[in-house]
Amino acid sequence: MSHQTGINATSELKEFLARARGGTIRIMKIVIRNEELVLDSYREPAQSWDKDYDQFLLPLLTPQEPCYILYRLDSQNAQGYEWVFIAWSPDQSPVRQKMVYAATRATLKKEFGGGHIRDEMFGTVEDDLCFQGYLRHMASCCCPAPLTAAEQELQRIKVTEDKAIWDERRRIGTPTARARVTMEFGLDKRPHTLQGLAFPLQEETKQALQQLKKRRINYIQLRLDVEKETIELVHTKPTETHELPYRIPSDCPRYHFFIFKHSHQGQRQEALVFIYSMPGYTCSIKERMLYSSCKNRLLDEVERDYQLEVTKKMEIDNGDGLTEDFLYEEVHPMEHTLKQAFAKPRGPGGKRGNKRLIKGARENGEES
Length: 368
Known about the structure:
6-stranded mixed beta sheet, 9 helices, 13 strands
């Protein structure tokens, strides 16, 4: 924040600014003279704001003298007409002048009223402030912030993955594989949106989900058949919690449904856990994208059509950490975040002696 110079607007300028806000003025030039902000010149509208711009503005830019320019647009907001606040500080002007104008800019903006100012521009040469310069300024304000090197790398990966899955869908060309992909290129790189795929469940998969609902089985492993575009059943082997890590393949992605039986607050409980295992980047881009795209639609169908309430959904790259303690903390996360209430410590044990009496001192300082 720049330090204020103590330079204020004259009473004549304050009255003029109040009148200008009503819309009768197109442009005004304000300068600092004798340690005061004063009105240098102004013009009333002749045509639309864009046609008046260069014709009115450029003649006011003196090569060696800084100034402030307020230019009125034709648009309005809740405060009234919108204005562009322009600070002109040419390279040839003295350094002290530049510093004074820079430090007084906030004072003028406050005097005019910040709610009326739509845009601010700063220029050292005419090319910065001409009409084309203003259009460039507006375009730069609309562009997203520059990306870091890490963000650029993630963006390249995302574009590559989206292109791969798009090419695959065009090659397959079947109704179940079609999904809307929005990809935008150019200056404005917004996040790409991908609608989930809906591969149909194979008949054995449907039967296994029915068995899981009736608690006749406690584990299901599923895979995607990319060629048939279906979700296939791998197996439903009975699985104890300590056996779960060995059910996670290390070379291919899978979906898992597991009924986690455990004791919570002295009662036996069951929690249906969904595990999406993807062994890192050893899988192809196509596999990673297909499994990721099908996951949400599969969960929606399981919860809607089979009334199976999934307590916890997790994504892992290997099964090493799937211990009973880990699953318990995932299913009951809040139980371990509660702090124990403060307990007043007990006093010393054994019989305490009689209370000691301390005699107070008399007024003359002698003990009683």
